[in-house]
Design goal:
mainly beta, three-stranded antiparallel sheet, two-stranded antiparallel ribbon, 1 helix, binds zinc ion
Length: 67
């Protein structure tokens, strides 16, 4: 049960993919931060019992711009 979304960083304006995993520790709800993988700014926080993973979308955007 993963929730995936594309986030644009407010600080550096770059896009990254954010994946929230669900229910690893049921009941252990905590605030997890989704940090920009480029500049480290916290894009948003989410109450989850799992983790938030972020992935750079650098390669995809570079390919678009270079063509
Ligand atoms: Zn950033």
């Amino acid at each position: 049960m993963n929730k995936e979304s594309i986030v644009i960083c407010e600080n550096c304006g770059r896009k990254f993919r954010c994946v929230e995993t669900g229910n690893i520790w049921p009941g252990g709800l905590e605030s997890e931060d989704a940090k920009c993988p480029y500049c480290g700014t916290i894009a948003f926080s989410s109450m989850t019992s799992g983790f938030i993973y972020v992935y750079k979308l650098d390669k995809e955007s570079e390919n678009d711009e270079n063509k």
